[in-house]
Automatic annotation (TrEMBL), chains A, B:
Family (UniProt): Belongs to the ROK (NagC/XylR) family.
Protein name: ROK family protein
HTH iclR-type domain sequence ranges: 23-65
Lineage: Bacteria, Bacillati, Actinomycetota, Actinomycetes, Micromonosporales
InterPro entries in alphabetical order: ATPase_NBD (IPR043129), ROK (IPR000600), Tscrpt_reg_IclR_N (IPR005471), WH-like_DNA-bd_sf (IPR036388), WH_DNA-bd_sf (IPR036390)
């Protein structure tokens, strides 16, 4: 991909059509149901081109006609809308404490959200993926793809080959990517940002980076070491697991390891004014802010979204982190906020990443 | 630009031609003089398309025919080469201690390189730019553009408007960008890297970042603060001016401020084993390495190029910096090396940035 974006490839008329299919799909994604005339007026494409493109998209069951629009004068124009019914896309989020399966249709509507308290064995991932794929296919849907969201340090290629090799459905396109990178893709679609960083704490401490609209590699936020030799890495200072250990010293290790309820407990104690929890949150927030200041100085995201477990604790983390951001990256007005996508944003990102592929105009080949 | 890359724009057949013009120009840039048949074979474009594209490029005087190629059997094929003669592009590098003007022709050959020991007043920039533009126009060349390379903290828009407003040649397209960002563009063209960071010390401490082949904003390396409150920013630890002050404590401030000769003096003393110079270099190299480790963990460049004054001192800085990189960003095999483009890489980057524009297939309109 790097090379493709760096070096131009020969183009032909098919590429023009692909680009214009993308323009129409993005218009409907952004503006909702529209008439052919409205699409033409807004995109600058001719009505004839729009009719040809939308005909192709209706043929692929990506669009459907939804009858007369709102304009009262003259013959009512037929309105086109994204058609969710024919396609599904699946994301599987793999965390140390649980597996999550999430599927959406092409219009972005959620089809299923399953949680399994489980380990991260390949067999368990494969089992959950197979059940999710079977369910949406029972609904008569073509599966655009299956993406596994894994901790940043997992060998994606090896896992993809193992999972693809074990799946009953050999025709499923399997992708593997990091939690934070996929969650950032979900935030890009949700918020429409071209430059966004998503901070994930479901496994260690990672940042998913979207720069100029494109996901980029890196984001090993937890690996930053902000001090002289001997200073622990940021994941030891601002990661969720060490935060839980500091905030809930009385909790036994097994309970601490079950992150979601432990994080809820931290929030409950902080709300009740527990000084141990509050000082642990202040320490984690300050350290996180120092790491985010480095991120802001180096790549200047418009928005930093505190995701998953960090979002649960955002009301205490953001004040401490903002103070460090203001001290260390002044004059760069980065918006620091909590994610609204919940604990399974990576699963959502894995699912919508396949919708994004279609939205680039590369229409699915589902042998209709 | 962000939006353009994030959101597809309607395409037409002109875009296909633009893309294919870019493919032909990039081929000749990368492979040197080639026959039409060789271009077709290598790019996958048809011979008819290549003939039409090259005809257009010859008409714009971007290509010229250079007579028979090397193939011995049958009628010798005419060979096409990039034609430098019709166009020039100018970069002006603005540093506290001197102004540099550099111009290249379209084939990348250097046309002029002027240094002025001067301040950074707009009047002096304008004077130098006017003389450089007048010189290449006397040679009958169309000027593709003029780019000012300035310290990272300069307000580019304000400066561009002042300079464009003061220039005698009102038709000159003026751009302003940071030293490091432009030097990174020069390194991308020189080394062909899609992911490269250029470290510049001509004014403070900045990194120019190319990610997936595209320049991105940010790179405020000198603003990183790698430690608790009270720790000085990285530019105070690893910048060239503080390094000179530590390495040459006996030098008077005026001599220290003249960076190029002072840096040469540091190199001479280090080579002679001067312990003060060597320990200053070791300190700066280690701090630089800690900052580069943050950069590597966050955006994983393939190559980090120590540029301008850092290149002069690379033989002492790289060992210290590599040690910190290995400690803080293990398992990420980033290549740390010295630039070979000298002290005016930013001026070169400013000039070649306009060649890059033409290489995307947007042919200059020089009212022939």
């Amino acid at each position: 991909m790097t090379t493709t974006r760096a070096e131009p490839q020969p183009a032909d008329f098919a590429d023009v059509r692909t680009t214009n299919l993308a323009v129409v799909l993005r218009h409907l994604r952004a503006h909702g149901p529209s008439s052919r005339a409205a699409i033409a007026a807004s995109t600058g494409l001719t009505k004839a081109t729009v009719s040809s493109l939308t005909g192709d998209l209706i043929g692929h069951r990506l669009l459907r006609e939804t009858g007369p629009g709102g304009n009262r004068i003259g013959r009512p124009a037929t309105v086109l809308a994204l058609d969710g019914s024919a396609y599904a896309s699946i994301g599987i989020q793999v965390a140390p404490d649980q597996l999550t399966a999430l599927a959406v249709d092409y219009s972005g509507e959620r089809l299923l959200l399953w949680h399994r308290a489980a380990g991260d064995s390949t067999a368990e991932m494969v089992g959950l993926a197979q059940r999710a794929a079977a369910r949406v296919r029972q609904q008569g849907r073509h599966v655009l793809g299956l993406t596994l969201a894994v901790p940043g340090d997992v060998d994606g290629t090896g896992l993809r080959d193992r999972v693809a090799g074990s799946l009953r459905q050999k025709d499923l396109a399997v992708t593997v990517a990091g939690h934070a990178a996929l969650a950032a893709i979900a935030e890009r679609r949700h918020g429409g940002w071209a430059n966004v960083a998503y901070v994930s704490g479901v496994a260690g401490l990672d940042a998913g980076l979207i720069i100029d609209g494109h996901p980029v590699r890196g984001g090993r936020l937890g690996h930053l070491t902000l001090g002289p030799a001997g200073t622990p890495a940021l994941r030891e200072q601002a990661g969720i697991a060490p935060l839980v250990r500091r905030a809930l010293p009385d909790l036994d290790p097994a309970a601490q390891a079950d992150l979601a309820p432990a994080v809820e407990q931290v929030a409950i104690r902080a709300r009740s004014g527990d000084t141990t929890a509050l000082s642990a949150l202040k320490h984690a927030g300050s350290c996180l802010g120092q790491g985010l200041a480095a991120l802001v100085n180096l790549v200047e995201p418009e928005v930093i979204v505190l995701g998953d477990h960090f979002a649960t604790l955002a009301e205490w983390l953001i004040p401490a982190a903002s103070g460090e951001l203001a001290r260390l990256a002044p004059a760069l007005g980065t918006d620091l906020r909590a994610s609204t996508l919940g604990l399974h944003a990576a699963a959502l990102g894995g699912a919508v990443s396949h919708l994004d592929q279609v939205d680039t105009g590369r229409l699915p080949d589902n042998d209709r």
